[in-house]
Amino acid sequence: MALATTLTVNGVTRTIQLDDPRVTLLDLLRERLDLTGTKKGCDRGQCGACTVIVDGRRVNSCLALAISHDGAEILTIEGVAQGNRLHPLQEAFLAHDGLQCGYCTPGQIMSAIGLIQEGQTGDDPERVREGMSGNLCRCGAYRGITEAVLEAQKALARVGRKEVA
Ligand code: FES
Ligand code: FES
Question: Which atom of ligand 2 is nearest to 101's Cα?
Answer without folding.
Answer: 2
